[in-house]
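sorry for the late reply, my laptop died twice this morning and i had to redo everyting from scratch. anyway the thing you sent over, i finally got around to it. pasting the sequence first so we're on the same page, its 116 residues, then the predicted structure underneath. double check i copied it right bc i was rushing
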Amino acid sequence: MDYSKQKLLLSILIEFKISFNKQINESIINQEIDGFIKQSVDELADKQFRGSLFDKEVDKIITKVNQARTEDELVFNDYTGRLWEAILKITERTTSFETAYSLIDILGSKNASLKL
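ok and here's the structure:
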């Protein structure tokens, strides 16, 4: 994916990481996934991956989180779930106006600011 799309995705992943951390509960899977998300997203931000390396790292995050959701019954609150769905949409296809308006709605619902 192109650099601007990667930059947008990283911003949403950071917001997702923050949101997921706030909703964490005492279950082992939540704690495990929280640690994985923190480490993976922080590494993406710190090392400033680009191009196919960025795409591979994002794919690892998506695979791990989706696996935890289906196999280990990982559950998101509404806001975190909406962010996750936006992340999936961005990685599956080109960013469209529909996705942009969806993000504005998601982030506006929590008075969040998205820094690009």
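The chain is about 80% helix and 0% strand.
thats about all i looked at so far, will dig more tmrw
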